[in-house]
Amino acid sequence: MRYLIGCDFGGGASKAILLREDGMVVAEAESEYATSYPRPGWAEQNPEDSFRAFVENIKKLFHSSEISPEQICAIALDGATHTAVLLDKEDKVIRPAIYWTDLRAVREAEELKESHLDKIVKLSANTPGALWTLPQLMWLRRNEPENFARIHKIMSIKDYVRYRLTGDYVTDSIEACGFMLYDVNGGKWSRELCSLAGIDPAIMPKVVPPEEILSSIKTEICRECGLSEKTKVIAGATDTVMEVYASGAIQPGQATVKLATAGRICAVTEKPLIDGNLVCYPHVCPGLWYPGTATKSCAASFRWYRDVFGAYEKEHYEDAYAKMAADAAQVRAGSDGLFFHPYLQGELTPYQDEMLKGSFTGIRAFHTRAHFNRAVLEGIAYSLKDCFYCFRELGADIKQAGIIGGGAKGELWRQIVADMLGIPLTKAERDDSSLGSAMLAGVACGVFENYEDSVARCVKAGSVTYPNPDCAAVYEEGFLRYKKFHDALAGVYHS
Q1: Closest residue by Cα to residue 226 from 56, 96, 91
Q2: Nearest to 60 by CA among 25, 2, 17
Q3: What are phi and psi of 369, to 5 degrees?
Q4: pTM over cut 0.70
């Protein structure tokens, strides 16, 4: 029996799965690491923590499965985009990686919009924001010139871990788009974009297809974690495209709605959709794209609300989220006029405004804790409705979608989102990006015939949540008020 490993590097942990050739996940492992916040609005990760988590996860997989290393045909990694690891000439990490939620490069992003917007959109197919590597490098050049001068290699978190495994200095063609230094039309690093960052394109990694088979795993790494040198290492890609792939969305017209730390709606298309409200990347399936809209604080908002206001639930219930959702379910759709705007870290789609702040509005004396519970879930769903309408305005009519991410496990939240968007939502049994990476590894090494075969074997259909017409009507009206509250408050946050 042949096996595959997929390993993801997320915001707070790395997750790995062991996938059997018949499509069954036979083992999984998770190792946490910290995201640090040295200043308000800043977020950083130590790349060494990701490598340590990888080694721990591989050991855990072997311990729980008891298979031999030689049975593992291939391994592929994925991780968060826009989180650049900087190495010096001695291959030492120069500083912690600036995580994609970091806001320090807001000024630089605005300067790029004012002076070079048309050029950047034409070359990168995307609009500048603080999350991209280009403005982050500009910030480093201004504020940490000594560190900036030491930059010899630039790569993503997952590329760094893979570099440690094989010594191959490469990135994949999807990840390359996330740096905003890549010419998506010419398929090469852009001299013009790199010059804006103040770097030579020659220091950037070689760009390869996601399914590329790379060099063998180093002997010392094999000894450290138990892998075999015969196991093929696949280039891999970003976590978002792997989630889309793992949900089974590999045909034009299919879509995914993600309820995770950030919220995201992605649609599979035959050509890029270029718009200031979209982040647009190639799909792992050749010839396709997956333009996406995003709300910056999705499950992160619910987690914040639990941590700040849910002390009782955390103390008295094993699952505080489930208790808060159960109470929220007793409140009718619309939360009796109470609204929550989840702009805890600014907002992406459709405002691209890091200055926005979160808020509760419409509070009356009769509102209870349960009302606030539901308002938080609805507020995040309203922000996804904002994302959803961006596709409608561009002519991409999404009639159904897969729902993925940790938040999708909650029945009430799935129902609220289905009602809010007015479309059926299908939840697969598994939707981890690590599954997508394992599937990609299988396609690359021939365990699966193609992407369609991998989906047929590995993606297991789950439940479908259909919208309630009455609730959908409430949310359609509520959305107008939600937008009015935003419009009224946005100017205050900028004053």
Answers
A1: 56
A2: 17
A3: -55, -40
A4: yes
The dihedrals phi and psi of 329, each to the nearest 5 degrees, come to -65, -20
Contacting residues for 213 by C-beta, under 8 A, at least 6 apart: 74, 232, 233, 234, 444, 445
Q: What pLDDT digit, counting tens, does each position of 247-272 carry?
A: 999 999 899 999 988 899 999 999 88
Residue 369 has pLDDT above 90, yes or no: yes
Structure tokens at 69: 């290393």
* Total tally of structural domains belonging to the chain: 2
Q: Is 218 helix (H, G, I), strand (E, B) or coil?
A: coil
The token pair that represents 157 in the structure block: 């978190």
Mean pLDDT in residue range 178-205: 96
Q: Is the peptide bond before 350 cis (omega within 30 degrees of 0)?
A: yes
What b/e string do you get for 24-62 counting C-beta neighbours within 10 Å, with b at 16 or more?
ebebbbbbebebeeeeeeebbbbbebbbebbbbbbbbbb
- Does one domain contain both 151 and 43? yes
**What CATH number is associated with residue 486?**
3.30.420.40
Domain end position, chosen among 210, 242, 274: 242
> Which residues are 98's β-sheet partners?
44
Strands annotated E in 50-169: 72-79, 84-87, 97-98, 153-156
* Helix (H) or strand (E) run with residue 104 in it: none
The number of C-alpha atoms within 13 Å of 220 and in the hemisphere containing its C-beta is 3
Same domain, yes or no: 62 and 149: yes
Q: What gap in Å lies between CA 239 and CA 220, rounded to an integer?
A: 27
Match 């950047």 to its residue by tokens: 120
Count Cβ atoms within 10 A of the Cβ of residue 390 and give its class: 0-12 exposed, 13-18 middle, 19 or more buried.
buried
| Residue 41 reports pLDDT greater than 90 | no
Q: Where are the alpha helices (DSSP H) in 358-450?
A: 369-393, 411-421, 433-445
